[in-house]
Amino acid sequence: MIGTYNISKYLQTAASTFAHPHVLNDGSWITMGRGARGKRPYYEFIRFKSGPGANDSTVMAEQAETIARITSNHKGGMAYFHSFGLTQNYIVYLETALKIELKLLLKNIIANGAISDAFTMDRGFLTRVHVINRNTGEVLKQRFVTDPLFTFHHVNAYEDQSSGDLVVDVSAYDAQHFDVNRLTTKDIFTPEFDGFAGFKALARRIRVPLKKSSSGDETIHCEIKDINSQLSFELPVINYGSYNALPYKYAYGVNIYKRPFSVVKLNVDDGKEAIEVTYTEATAGKEYLPNEPIFVPNPNGKSEDDGVLLVMVLSDANDFLSVLDARDLKESARADVPADIKGSFTFHGVFADKLHFPKL
Asked: Average pLDDT for residues 69-76, to the nearest whole number?
């Protein structure tokens, strides 16, 4: 279903709920929103096309189009979402166990309560793996599911030409242990939270067997495996410009669930090949909290991991920007922030280069 999209409704319903649009090489981008028909909430996928004047907000709105809509499988609500996967031909959306109760959401909006109080975990909810042809808007009829889980972040997705499967890599939490109300700074620094086996994100790989036929009533269970079950892995990034939606080898993230907090490089094809680095120069009682790494490729790079990671690190002393060689995670430079300026934990960031963000 490809159709003209109502941009005002998009801004009202989706802008504050989604963080990871996919930016394509032609300058267009695909994002995700939500809506409802009566009591039936749905997820919506939107394409913003490129072209003359595309950076102008009015023209951009006029060029937006709906790719597809998927009705929620949660009774009385819909799954919380933060990102989705993209391959060369498909959109992959995981409808997971963290549910937004619409009645509770309305109640908390009226009462000026916490939005998170409207979140509940349906711990037995099998993850629905929705697959959409990103060119035609066709939603595949097969009913794909995998184990109950929750994910904020997709790492990457691609089409395995040898098997015909979709490979979907995510940072996933066990639905039996995940609790959104424990994601606070206080909890992260609480000794009881440190190393709690169940509550941590792991890099996991899901295989979606596209070639397996289904009448529409049959449920097809997708294989899911840990890429590395020992290393916590959240806020993942890749060499996005060259490898998004394509076969790749390396992903980077942070371990913020076990001290000492660290930056991680992971070979997604061989999870045993991993590098973990910590900032060890802290004196007794000091903490270093690395934020999401940002991968900046070497313009003349010859390999997937030829580039640097920019990591904002919070410290009891001076906060600082750490520059790591993406090949071995050795620190090559550091820029200290003045002692009287303190940062906050940044969920996401961006590298603003001179080409795309010229100095005004």
From this structure: 93
